[in-house]
């Protein structure tokens, strides 16, 4: 009992082959789209790479790139096969390759699905990476004279301006680190010396933020220094002031940005997966119907196409037996000690009669 | 005949096919010109708030119009090519082709004018930006005045995006009160001193808004007391280059727009080239096919040319034709029933005198 049997006339087979040829070429294009989406994600992650700590997040775009390339190759081959399938003589060329091709493509679609799921699951690792990376970047904000860290100030400033965010979780993160280098602090001043002495680690902490935290939508000129001191500024209430600085934390802003990208990419990959699956189903039908035609002998006759020859359970059992016997092929038969010349009596219960039957005398007709 | 070429039947067919392809190429280049115009216009509109007038918009407007007309014109050329090898269908295009040539020449001239204008209008653009930016800086503080409340955001965004400060440079901010009175404590001595020292009673200070800060500076941004070396540690006002953006926004914006228009120059010139070649090829095709249909053997050789007579003679002919048409509108007082009454709307008095005179054949017929 075949799974999902469909009858195919000659014209239907030819039409199926042509349609599949076109669909395979469309799949090549979608494979190229997957490749470019992977490349795009890689570039986007690289752009903010300086505020991400070392975490293994590059595997997602790498998978997408690999899957895209393999999809192009597989569907290119599929297109060639389907193009030749219109003619039954040319089909003989591909007859032996088609079944392994279909099996490979079936497993490949699993890879595509895994790629799509990875896009949705990546954001936990990304959040960790951003958390650590941003903390480091803020710590080294002042080290513009240390080689290897001298660009962190610029990176952090551009990031805060571009993504409209301030600090890691909020602007108060800047109160806890020294972001003004000692090179620009007048140690002889009383105020500076007081601040440094009042801190355990000898850090110059202040309730101020860098200029890149300033909100451009604020109606008043930006208040960067003495943020928590209401009396330092005219008509200023620290608790209710919302428009002065960016309220969002940069980790949150970057995460939202990347989640948005990855959700769009994940959706595209899912749609591609469905498309590939449907093309694969068509190719399977084409293969089985052409094989049946060859078995029947008449290339113009009707034939059946199916997904699986027997039911699902039987096919699974048959395949398991094949795999088991493949494993047994290397084992030695211990009953004969490996010698194939010893006659092992059959253990079957069927009786085909006694062994010593004299040959029948043929009476000659005279 | 000007620049004549002999065409066999096969050459005519080749010319028609090649011209059909080139006409579709010209259609696409027309679409390209249109998109270019749209892009330029959107870019100019984005910064419309810091521009005083819209004179510079003539460049993208012409580009858009030329693009649209060019698409239609070259599509007509493809239809003409398709009909050119069919002797029965080609004659109906005869009259239209004269108009087509005129329109195509006009398009080429307009495109050339666009290239010239984009250089010539640079001065006007600078003027417009100068006035617009000056107003923007003046109204920076008026975030509570309707109609001006977005100036602060506009100027801040502009300065951050184009990495510039002020109109000519950052010192423009020293001459303007950019801190609103709402946020000034008038009981403070410093504020009162500053206001009293100024003739107009404005609160001027040697500070700039935060959007002038340069992120590439190694030290945290210094916005206030810029001219006072003692106000900041290890700070020299004259030598400090990285603290703020040194470029003025007028210069930055002018450079940006000039670069955009210059980069479109080669594209526009190549479109002019394509259009001219379509025009020349279509003229050859028209004359060759017309020559062939006039022959006894339509499949034989014919001569294609650009102009039937020399340049001067053609010019004289055209002038005579145009004058004739102009004369056609005027009533010839000696001719009784020369022109039909419809053309005489301007001179009804002459009409009556003409009717009164005795009928004589008009010299024009």
TrEMBL record, chain A:
The chain crosses the membrane at residues 20-39, 59-78, 98-120. Keywords: Membrane, Transmembrane, Transmembrane helix. GO terms for cellular component: plasma membrane. It is found in: Membrane. It comes from the Eukaryota. It is a multi-pass membrane protein. The keyword Transmembrane applies. One of its GO terms (biological process) is visual perception. Residues 344-366 are annotated as: Disordered. Belongs to the PRPH2/ROM1 family. PANTHER family: PERIPHERIN 2 LIKE-RELATED, TETRASPANIN. This is Peripherin 2-like a. It comes from Neolamprologus brichardi. The lineage of its organism: Eukaryota, Metazoa, Chordata, Craniata, Vertebrata.
Automatic annotation (TrEMBL), chain B:
SUPFAM superfamilies: Tetraspanin. InterPro entries: Peripherin/rom-1, Peripherin/rom-1_CS, Peripherin_LEL, Tetraspanin/Peripherin, Tetraspanin_EC2_sf. It is a multi-pass membrane protein. Keywords: Membrane, Transmembrane, Transmembrane helix. The lineage of its organism: Eukaryota, Metazoa, Chordata, Craniata, Vertebrata. Pfam families: Tetraspanin. It is found in: Membrane. It comes from Neolamprologus brichardi (Fairy cichlid). It comes from the Eukaryota. The keyword DNA repair does not apply. Belongs to the PRPH2/ROM1 family. GO terms for biological process: visual perception. Residues 344-353 have a biased composition (Basic and acidic residues). This is Retinal outer segment membrane protein 1b. Its main location: membrane. The chain crosses the membrane at residues 21-39, 59-77, 97-121. Residues 334-365 are annotated as: Disordered. GO terms for cellular component: plasma membrane.
